[in-house]
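Please describe what follows:
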Amino acid sequence: MNLNKNLVKLSGDASFRKFYRIKNKRSILVFSEKEKKNNLLIYDAVNRLLLKNKINAPKLIKQNYKKNSIEIEDLGDQSVFDRLIKNKNNKINLYFKVISILSKLQKIKKKKIITFKKNSYLIPKYTNKMLYKESKLFLDWYVPNIIKKNNRKIINKKIIKIIKKLISNLKNKKKVFVHRDFHVSNMMYFKNMIFLIDSQDAVYGNNAYDLASLIDDVRIKTTNREKEKIFLKYTKMNTSINLDDFRNDFEILSVLRNLKIIGIFTRLSVRDKKNKYLKLIPYAWKLIEQRLKKNPNFYDLKEVLRKYFSNRVRKKYEN
């Protein structure tokens, strides 16, 4: 792609997209040659669905799909993550606003969306098979990068069995809209409102998944007290849920998600040469450790991780 003088490159995310601010307009050019259907077409389709349900998301200005780009609304440079870091005294109130958005998100019923190419896109179900495949990224990428070859086979066999058992222990069968990457770095704070971004991987799945993404977010540290306050705020806004079943699913999905994240961050380094995410792996381990402490669901996993992944291994990449 040839850059002209009106385009300013912005820092990217973990996807194959590239972002450019158009200086003489209030818009962002999103460019993606690789996986462009997901990164451009589906991304805009899900944004349309959010906007129809009165949830803030970037609006499409125009598309040039043949040339691998779309132009979207510019939401500025301040994410909710940035706002939380700068306004620590207002931290919980801001999280409570996010919880309101999550509750609204989970009320979305429509699954089929018409894209800008005039075809329909059906938001997929978050199946157990998908959950398993994602959790296994820990074994596919992290384990080969950190564990000696002679131990890998036995570790893989044990953890695969545990992952399948944990997934089978999920209680809630009702499916809701799941953003799937619902954390404060994927929310922009613009004109005193919160906008959701990076929504292309949305699915219909367990209602505890996005809350686990938000509360046990590897990118920002929150105290256990803050985590519990946010959790209880959600449950008070959603009184129809069975609290014991919901907490069970929340803790299982948090652990599986953070195993996945450790795998993804390793893959970004090994495959894509994006090393900046490695420094987040030690905190992902801490989040897993916190959830393993009291829940009997995790006894087997706790023992396997304790045996094969020492504190020294877990703290690798720590600053």
Remarks:
- The two ends are 36 Å apart (CA to CA).
